[in-house]
Amino acid sequence: MREIGHFIGGKQVKGASGRTADVFQPMTGEVIGKVALASKAELRAAVENAKAAQPAWAATNLQRRARVMFKFLELVQRDYDALADLLCREHGKTIADAKGDIQRGVEVVEFACGIPHLMKGEFTDGAGPGIDLYSMRQPLGVVAGITPFNFPAMIPMWKFAPAIACGNAFILKPSERDPGVPMRLAELMIEAGLPAGILNVVNGDKEAVDAILDDPDIRAVGFVGSSAIAEYVYTRGTANGKRVQAFGGAKNHMIVMPDADMDQVVDALMGAGYGSAGERCMAIAVAVPVGKKTADNLVDRLIPRVESLKIGPSTAADADFGPLVTKQHLEKVRNYVELGIKEGAKLKVDGRGFKMQGYENGFYMGGCLFDEVKPEMRIYKEEIFGPVLSVVRAKDYKEALDLPSKHEYGNGVAIFTRDGDAARDFAAKVDVGMVGINFAIPVPLAYHTFGGWKRSFFGDLNQHGPDSVRFYTKTKTITARWPSGIKDGAEFVIPTMK
Ligand code: NAD
Which of 31, 183, 386, 482 is surrounded by the fewest CB atoms within 10 Å? Predict the structure, then answer.
């Protein structure tokens, strides 16, 4: 049995709290490890370490900091297969999808390699007589990231790569459900030349999270997870004077206009609805066909595709998706299907009975498809986070536009159409943070920013892209006047540029 402690001061350390959590292998249902759950004192030890190491790292020139990132990229390439294997065993997603998880993280590390350019300040020459005005970006000090189970490589990299490149020291509190990959990433950062203490991984649960939110030396917290916890983290963190960005849950819609290419639509819905067993914050959970003809056609085409989904163990090369993350989560998703039936939605494909031969204790279920889901149903309002797609029929474009706009979540949304006018109008008007046009999972690339709206995000600055540099730095502005520009005598009036 693997024992997973913490990574503090550049090395693995054993947990000292006496509390642990089981780490499962979802494809077999076995417990494959025990992860330590940190106490407040252990979190504090990591912060002390980070605090001591940070000034020298901030003083390290930008190109050297970038070189650590470049080297880290090489090491991730070297260990890609092993990382993907570890990831799929703890999470349950397929090996191909695990590689995608790593790759989307790598892209943000590549972005962070540009830190000498990204940290450049602004300069105004001759703002007045002999006066220069300039601004610089400085790191915050010790910052933290709290991440969810569903992207155990990507989201930790989204958080620590920009923060560390900016000159901060980082405390990562990954999900206790799949901590193996974040621990390996920290080791690789040290192997890449990062000084000890700059990236620390503290495993844990609510106790560690609360210790982060209350620690006076942690200046900023980047959180990703469910909305209730995101709101809690935002409220408690900001009350303690921290800068907080807290990304929450989602219920992403895909609008299908009558003129859309239906082959593309069905392929897109299959991938975005059922990929990774629906455990993605950008998964499509709701399909909104516009008009009866579109809806009937869509449902008729979806049924055989959902029935023939290939579910397999995470290591199977040909599986469309693997098991869910835990037995508890599997039960939750099954209960939502039961609830949908009670609420009156039409269950067209029922995947609840699926059993994976040879893996009977794994956390599997087949794809489910609901038709005639109504906005007042809980299966529409709440995030299910499983392989369950709901069809909500809209009579016209206006009704389709209103559905995602009025939903409490606002992470991603997509419209499939050939009509440029409709697409343009939709992108401008929909009350959602990330929009795809004939693109089902519009996760922006690393050099743009990622963030939802409404209950999908609490905070101001998005993750990755230019916002990540703004989030992990503070701006200092300097007004300098040289002796040749100074007139004799005291000035009692506020300086102006009359
Ligand atoms: P979660 O909210 O259960 O856990 C997220 C983090 O919070 C973990 O590190 C966990 O240890 C910690 N945590 C859990 N309960 C806590 C509590 N009571 N107090 C303090 N901390 C606590 O989320 P999850 O199940 O790991 O991840 C899935 C969720 O994350 C989904 O809702 C999904 O939509 C969301 N998500 C959002 C984004 C985004 O960018 N918006 C991206 C990925 C996932």
Answer: 482
* Residue tagged active-site, from 88, 113, 166, 281: 281
Query: Same domain for 213 and 339?
Result: no
Let me know if residue 489 belongs to a domain: no
How many whole angstroms separate alpha carbon 397 and alpha carbon 289? Answer: 9
**C-beta of residue 9 within 8 angstroms of C-beta of residue 49:** yes
Residue with CA closest to ligand 1 atom 18: 206
Q: Give the CA radius of gyration of the chain.
A: 25
19 touches 216 (CB < 8 A): no
Distance 385 CA to ligand 1 centre (A): 12
Please indicate, yes or no, whether residues 188 and 293 belong to a single structural domain of this protein. Answer: no
Q: How far apart are CA 183 and CA 190, in angstroms?
A: 11
A 10 A CB-CB count for 381 gives 12
444, part of any domain: no
Domain presence at residue 41: yes
Rounded Cα distance, 121 and 424, in Å: 35
pLDDT tens by residue, 10-50:
999 999 999 999 999 999 999 999 999 999 999 999 999 99
| Closest listed residue to residue 416, CA positions, set 252, 282, 266 | 266
Query: Which residues form the domain of 16?
Result: 2-248+456-478
Instruction: Tell me the helices (H) and strands (E) count for the chain, helix number first.
Output: 16, 23
pTM of the predicted protein model: 0.96
Q: What is the pLDDT of residues 421-468, one digit of tens each?
A: 999 999 999 999 999 999 999 999 999 999 999 999 999 999 999 999
Q: Are residues 286 and 370 in the same domain?
A: yes
Q: Residue 383 maps to which CATH number?
A: 3.40.309.10
224 located within any domain? yes
How do 434-437 and 412-416 pair as beta strands? parallel
Rounded CA separation 364/297 (Å): 29
Closest CA to 288 of 280, 298, 273: 298
Domain count of the fold of the chain = 2
Using CB distances shorter than 6 Å, the residues near ligand 1 are: 146-151, 173, 175-176, 205-206, 209, 224-226, 229, 247-250, 281, 383, 385, 411, 452, 456
- Our answer to whether residue 281 is catalytic in this structure is yes
The identity of residue 89, as a single letter, is: R
Dist. CA 182–CA 90, nearest whole Å: 12
Residues 64 and 158 in one domain: yes
Same domain for 126 and 55, yes or no, is yes
- Same domain for 261 and 160: no
Ligand 1: residue whose CA is nearest its atom 30? 225
CATH number where 217 lies: 3.40.605.10
Give the number of the atom of ligand 1 that is nearest the alpha carbon of residue 148: 26
Question: Are both 277 and 200 inside the same structural domain?
Answer: no
Domain closes at, from 409, 437, 465: 437
Residues 424 and 407 in one domain: yes
